[in-house]
């Protein structure tokens, strides 16, 4: 089984660089799909309360028999919970659904920046980390200005910022802001949900290495130092998305994929999206 490289976070914890995402995995398929991922060798699962499938993920973890310390489990607090002042209760509910005593990483899912409720949520995150309910704490979809506010108001710098990144949307300003603060970058929708698989540099590298476009894009993220968790419900794709440690992209190939930036956002712009 492949050894996945790890990244050391600013709080000293380590995280496997390649994980498995479960957004849009139906609740009644989550157990089977995650069991398949764990069988293939993934040890890092990216979940969120709002995905509605934590129970299935929890059942797969329990049935796997894999020692807890070998797993890295993330979940996230949704906006409605932190705006209601329920951040701590939200994590307790997630832990119950996952069947766990702690998560490895808890994230604020969106800043929803029309008001600054995310700053109060961050205080609760710091307390929950101190209580041991989560090993690491971080944020998701935070733009540089939101990170500045957290850095000013908080006492702990987020370990992670999880943002949309793939060849068509690289958010370099955001990645640079993360680096300045010592925050590791996670790439969500790392495959652009398939939208970059026909782009010439991706196809050319896939042909040159005898691999799939998805494997090329995963390798590009890994070699650029990002943490990622592609999603699939198809066993062959779950396996092939993990089979990415037997080839290496050249700097020329990486640079050609860097050149695919086209502001190709697939999700909402966090600066403008204010769910409640
Ligand atoms: P992704 O970029 O991982 O693409 C997944 C889709 O790509 C699949 O549904 C399938 O259609 C296709 N695909 C996957 N593997 C393939 C392969 N080998 N060959 C061909 N097609 C393949 O998209 P995603 O699920 O949106 O993102 C991954 C994870 O990121 C999510 O599951 C979730 O955990 C996380 N995420 C977080 C946020 C956030 O706001 N924090 C938002 C979106 C996603």
UniProtKB/TrEMBL annotation:
Chain positions of site Lowers pKa of active site Tyr: 76
Binding site for substrate: 109
A Pfam family annotated for this UniProt entry: Aldo_ket_red
Name listed for the protein in its UniProt record: 2,5-diketo-D-gluconate reductase A
Record-linked PROSITE patterns: ALDOKETO_REDUCTASE_2
Similarity-based family: Belongs to the aldo/keto reductase family.
NADP-dependent oxidoreductase domain mapped to chain residues: 18-260
Keywords, ordered alphabetically: NADP, Oxidoreductase
KW Membrane (keyword) present: no
Catalytic center residues: 51
GO molecular function, one term: oxidoreductase activity, acting on the CH-OH group of donors, NAD or NADP as acceptor
């Amino acid at each position: 089984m492949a050894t996945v490289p790890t990244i050391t976070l600013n709080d000293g914890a380590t995280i496997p660089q390649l994980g498995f995402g479960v957004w849009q995995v139906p609740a009644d398929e989550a157990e089977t799909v995650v069991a398949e991922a764990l069988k293939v060798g993934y040890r890092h699962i990216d979940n969120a309360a709002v995905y509605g499938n934590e129970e299935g993920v929890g059942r797969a973890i329990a049935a796997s028999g894999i020692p807890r310390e070998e797993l890295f489990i993330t979940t996230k607090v949704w906006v409605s919970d932190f705006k209601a002042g329920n951040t701590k209760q939200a994590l307790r509910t997630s832990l119950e659904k996952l069947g766990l005593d702690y998560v490895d990483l808890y994230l604020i899912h969106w800043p929803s920046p029309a008001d600054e409720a995310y700053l109060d949520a961050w205080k609760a995150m710091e307390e929950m980390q101190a209580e041991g309910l989560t090993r690491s704490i971080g944020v998701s979809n935070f733009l540089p200005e939101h990170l500045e506010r957290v850095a000013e108001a908080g006492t702990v710098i987020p370990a992670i910022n999880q943002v949309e990144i793939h060849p068509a949307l690289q958010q370099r300003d955001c990645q640079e802001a993360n680096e300045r603060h010592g925050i590791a970058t996670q790439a969500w929708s790392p495959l652009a949900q398939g939208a970059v698989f026909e782009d010439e540099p991706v196809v050319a590298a896939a042909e040159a290495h005898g691999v799939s476009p998805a494997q090329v894009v995963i390798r590009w993220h890994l070699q650029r130092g990002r943490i990622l968790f592609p999603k699939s419900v198809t066993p062959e794709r779950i396996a092939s998305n993990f089979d990415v440690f037997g080839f290496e992209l050249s700097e020329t190939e990486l640079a050609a994929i860097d050149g695919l930036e086209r502001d190709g956002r697939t999700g909402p712009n966090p600066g403008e999206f204010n769910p409640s």
